[in-house]
Specification:
Layout (H helix, E strand, L loop, with lengths): L33 E8 L2 E9 L6 E7 L8 E7 L2 H5 L7 H15 L2 E6 L3 H4 L2 H14 L3 H7 L10 H9 L5 E4 L3 H9 L4 E5 L10 H10 L13
Parallel strand pairs: 4-5, 4-6, 6-7
Antiparallel strand pairs: 1-2, 2-3, 3-5
The chain binds zinc ion.
Zinc ion (ZN) binds next to helix 1.
Length: 232
Amino acid sequence: MSCQGVGGADGSRSDGAGPEGLGTGVPAVGPAAVAEAELATRRGPFRIVALRDPSDGREHAALVLGEVCGGEDVLARAHSECVTGDVFGALRCECGDQLEAALDLICAEGRGVVVYLRGHEGRGIGLVEKVRTLAVQDAHGLDTVDSATALGLPVDVRDYGPAARILLHLGVRSVRLLSNNPAKVRALREHGVEVASRVPLLMPARRENVAYLTAKRDRLGHDLPHLDGPRG
Ligand SMILES: [Zn+2]
C-alpha cells in the first residue's frame, strides 16, 4: 500500500509508488509525476490527484472524496475521457450523464474516487477520428462499431493501466467499480486492482443515444438490462 503524500500539505510524495511487483515492466511513478491539491467543487470539497503515467505519458486525474487510503470496497469509477459528452453535454452518448451520476453517488456515500482517463477518447482512437466516426454514423447509418471499422480504426484500444496505477498510488485496497462494462473489470484486475464488485451505472436512454446504447449492449458486451428491445 502506498499512502504517503496522499493528503499531504505539499502535494508531493517520495516513495515512487508504482506498479513494481505487478510484472508489467512499466517504470515506477516518480514524485515528479504526481501532484495533488484540495479542490472545491459544486458538490463540495474534493482532492484532485494528477498523475503523469510512465507508460502512456499522458496526464490523468483522480477526483478523490474522503479517506480512501487503505480503504476496502471504495466506490470508484474509471471514466474514459469524452470531450463531446463530458464537456459539451452531447446526448449521443451517456458519458456525461455517467460522470455526473458517479460523482453524485460518491458524494452520497461520502467516499470514493473518479479516475479520469485521458487518451480514451473514442475508446482510444482520439478526438479527430472519433468525430470522423460520428460523421460516418450519420451519413451511412452505421453504429459505433461499424463506423470505426469502416474507417479502418480499432474498436477499443483503451489502456486501463493508468487507472490501476492511480488507484494503487492512492492506496485503495479494493473497489466497487461503477461501470456497465465487464471488460473494464477484467482489465483493472489484470493491472492489479482488486475489484470487489461492479456497481451498475444505468442511465435512462434518450432518443439521441438509444442506438448507441443498444450497440454497446449487443456488440460490446455492456450489461444494460434497462434497455428495451431484444438482444442481437
Ligand atoms: Zn461519450
